[in-house]
Amino acid sequence: METTATFCTIVPPHILDKLAQSEDPAVSEPARRTLERDALLRTQRRISAGRGEAAPAGTPSDRPQRTIYDAAQRDTLPGAKVHAESDRPAKDQAVNRAHAGLGATFDFYLKAYGRHSIDDCGLPLDATVHYGDSYGNVFWNGEQMVLGDGMGKVLLDFTESPEVIGHELTHGVTQSTADLDYSGQSGALNESISDVFGSLVKQYALGQTADQADWLIGAGLFGPAIRGVALRSLKAPGTAYDDPQLGKDPQPTTMDDYVRTSRDNGGVHINSGIPNHAFYLVASALGGHAWEQAGKIWYATLTGGELAADADFADFARLTAATARSLFGEGDEIQAVLKAWSMVGVPIA
After folding, report:
1. From 119's CA, which of 5, 24, 27, 264 has a CA 20 to 30 Å away?
2. Any catalytic annotation for residue 191?
3. Which of 168, 171, 191, 289 is catalytic?
4. Domain spanning 8-176 has what CATH number?
């Protein structure tokens, strides 16, 4: 799997920017450190990817090969190896939760779509826990995922949220398939695809149907004093939080409210709300297990070889419609796809 310059995080910079302005040093200082660390890692990723390095692939297998490392609140990766695939459960529950989250994501892609690890070639799955000093984020750096412990009373332990792990590993799936550019609408698609399949990982693990799912990304990550339920909502973008410390969820639901900004690579964590909601509309219209119809359409579109790296929303919409027709014919699936994209204001030529 060729590495790219993409450095993908789960917590968007607009949340961290707002927290960094807090008058409470226990909130502002970790937020500032996290923003600074993310900026440094993003630069390092761009430089290392330019060298043409590649992450080692494994041998396709129906069993995951997971390794968990502990950074011990330092910034060095990968940290000390603390758990291998065959080891018994650790005393550290963050290690166990990371191990389980990697396994849930591997299991989902294998059993739902026949994919062997995130590169479909048996790539070993590595994760580092306890990264940094009150590091308030999670990221995929092109080779592994890394989880901070959160920021005390504001952002809690990231290993508690299985869809977060599914989200970050899906960046690896995108990296090894369409390799979507991480800016503008293609970057928002990159983030949206991770949100979609992150949610499906959780739904698959829980055996939920579309109407039973919460459709939230990062549910339970906020401390009890925060007025919010998650980082993002596919069902209702723009409603995940509304809090004095965080601000209001800025995600749009339709193209009428598309946000034009130079921050966050052109608003990749904001405008992803539009394709997120399109997927939710398709899944809810079709009902049942969302990975079986709506998810299959999105997965086949991502992996089919026709999605360009600089694809915009209209390109993706057109390809999902063509995929729905190819997979399911002129039935409910194609009608659901056409209606969903129309409802979010993305035309299909």
Report:
1. 264
2. no
3. 168
4. 3.10.170.10
SS (H, E, C) 14-76: HHHHHHHCCCCHHHHHHHHHHHHHHHHHHHHHHHHHCCCCECCCCCCCCCCCEEEEECCCCCC
Q: How far apart are CA 10 and CA 308, in angstroms?
A: 24
Q: Which residues pair with 9 in a beta bridge?
A: 139
Over residues 187-205, the mean pLDDT reads 98
Domain boundaries, the chain: 8-176, 184-343
| Model pTM above 0.90 | yes
Q: Any idea what DSSP says for residue 10?
A: S
CATH, range 184-343:
1.10.390.10
| Helix count and strand count (H, E) for the chain | 10, 10
pLDDT at 49 (0 to 100): 53
- Does the pLDDT at position 91 exceed 60? yes
Could you give the 3-state DSSP secondary structure of residue 294? helix
**Could you tell me the maximum CA-CA distance found in the chain, to the nearest angstrom?**
58
Name the pLDDT band for 54 (thresholds 50, 70, 90): very low
Cβ neighbours around 121 below 10 Å, total: 15
- The one catalytic residue in 269, 277, 289, 333 is 269
| DSSP-derived pairing of the beta strands 216-217 and 145-148 | unpaired
Is the distance from CB of 6 to CB of 57 less than 8 angstroms?
no
